[in-house]
Specification:
The protein is mostly helical. The chain has one domain. Helices cover 77% and strands 0% of the residues. The chain is built from six helices and no strands. Helix 1 packs antiparallel against helix 6 and helix 3 packs across helix 6.
Length: 151
């Protein structure tokens, strides 16, 4: 598979899995408006106004969501040829990469965004990290191993 195709398909899969997991977790917690997830994501750029915004803010949130999924996929794909461990041990590297994604998003991106720093609570942090391991880390690492093999 061509690098760009593999990159885009992996981004689409990982981003969709992450969104589906987030929506499922949000709904199981008793919330009934999953569009709020994407408004929250948009608020990282637009500020608090995004939280009460309509469909355009949801669309921006979805776009930002997939943009970050793309960046995480691209970074992993670019690192694979230089760090053999990533493709030799895709499950371990996927778990570690999911944790890394959680750390980057929660300790760097969100605090530096217009959302600002948020207190970290144990249970939500564990759920969020688990979602990123399952939906981002593992799919990206497993698909990178499959699609980035030497011809």
């Amino acid at each position: 598979m061509v690098f760009i195709q593999a990159l885009l398909l992996t981004t689409l899969l990982a981003g969709s899995l992450d969104a589906l997991c987030a929506i499922t977790q949000y709904t199981l917690a008793g919330n009934h408006q999953p569009a709020r997830i994407f408004r929250y994501i948009a608020s990282g750029f637009f500020g608090r106004e995004a939280l009460t915004g309509g469909t355009p803010m949801v669309v921006y949130g979805v776009l930002f969501h997939y943009f970050f999924a793309f960046l995480f996929t691209l970074a992993f794909f670019l690192l694979c040829p230089y760090i053999p461990f990533l493709s030799l041990h895709p499950v371990i590297s996927g778990i570690l990469y999911g944790l890394t994604a959680w750390l980057i998003m929660n300790l760097l991106v969100v605090p530096l965004s217009r959302i600002g720093p948020r207190p970290l609570r144990l249970w939500p942090s564990l759920i969020g990290a688990g979602i990123l391991i399952i939906a981002i880390g593992l799919p990206i690492s497993l698909l990178a191993k499959r699609w980035l093999k030497e011809p």
